[in-house]
Amino acid sequence: MNFYSIRHLTRFRYSQPISESIMETRMHPRSDSIQHCLNFTLSVSPRCRVFAYRDHLGNNVHHFDVPGEHNQLVIVAESVVEQQLQPDIPHSLPPAAWGELDQLIEAGDYWEMLLPSRFAEETPALIELAKEMDVVRRDDPLHLVLELNQRLFHSFDYVPRSTRVDSPIDEAIESRKGVCQDFAHTLIALLRHVRIPARYVSGYLFRGREDHDRSTPDATHAWVEALLPHLGWVGVDPTNNLIAHHRHIRTAVGRDYADVPPTHGVFRGKTASELYVAVKVEASEQPPALDQRMPIPEDWSVLVERAQRPPEPAIPFSDMQQMQQQQ
């Protein structure tokens, strides 16, 4: 088994003081048969009381309200995750797997992961892409999932900041470039086109020295899980042409990104805002000491400025949703 230590830092900086921030976060890794979250802490500055609940898909959600005047909001999520070693999946399933998949769908409640959603719509551009890639029920469901995962990897370029957090699926399809969020939405829509239940997975990807992933290492990540007979939910990463196990750490699942943004909230005030995100994932073969967490400096601005990337350009908005695009 593997152990991962994750630090996820988010900073919102405002050009003028605001009077209140209301925020919801999904940064707490899931615990299930594949992985177990051993420890999780969420630190917020300015200090406030943090509450937690689980949504209808079993995701861990934290929320808080900062009512006083402030010109910066910093959130640091730290977690330790134990991940079980998983057997490799086969290259294909028996020819009868399509019929078994339909029986599985009829016996379960998977309609949310079959219907079009906000960022995974069956647009005319998507239908044309499906024709181009011959997305019809052929071979077997697993073979088709793996083929589409590979074809999207080769057909689309990974280009950071080429799309926005709210970009429709057509932008990536027409330009043939995007970030992991776009790769995931496109694959989900293609799979739902042939009635394979597919869901969006938000989380982190550990990158070792021997790994050559093209996704950004200091950001959150996104990939896809498809429901398949005999195998259950199988994760695939079209951004990096990977099977999503061993190095993929799951935080939340949903119909698409709209269900699982790492941060989602509003503030009271009229000002410009800078969003900055930094992520660090470390692996070990032994569980780290849970009582020896890395201390968090009192000076939040120093912590942020030492992180790996400069802030994004200022974006003016008022009382709007604050979201992070997954790279």
What form results from the Cα inertia axes?
globular
Biggest sheet: strand arrangement? 3-6-1-15-16
How large is the share of residues in beta strands? 35-45%
Q: Which regions are unreliable across 5 or more consecutive residues at pLDDT < 50?
A: 294-301, 304-322
E-strand count: 16
Oligomer: single chain
Biggest beta sheet summary: 5 strands, antiparallel
Domain count, please report it.
Answer: 2
Give the C-alpha Rg. 20 Å
At CATH's second level, what is the architecture of the largest domain? Roll
Number of helices: 6
CATH topology (fold) name of the largest domain: C8orf32 fold
Task: Output the helix-strand order.
Answer: EEEEEEHHHEHEHEEEEEEEHE
How are the SSEs ordered, and which strands pair?
Elements: E1 2-18, E2 20-28, E3 35-45, E4 50-54, E5 60-66, E6 70-83, H1 97-107, H2 124-132, H3 141-155, E7 157-158, H4 169-175, E8 177-178, H5 180-193, E9 198-205, E10 221-228, E11 232-237, E12 242-243, E13 248-254, E14 263-268, E15 271-284, H6 300-305, E16 315-317
Parallel strand pairs: 7-8
Antiparallel strand pairs: 1-6, 1-15, 2-5, 2-14, 3-6, 4-5, 9-10, 9-13, 10-11, 11-12, 15-16
Helix pairs in contact: 2-5, 3-5
Keywords:
five-stranded antiparallel sheet; 19% helix; globular; Immunoglobulin-like; single chain; alpha+beta; 6 helices; C8orf32 fold; 327 residues
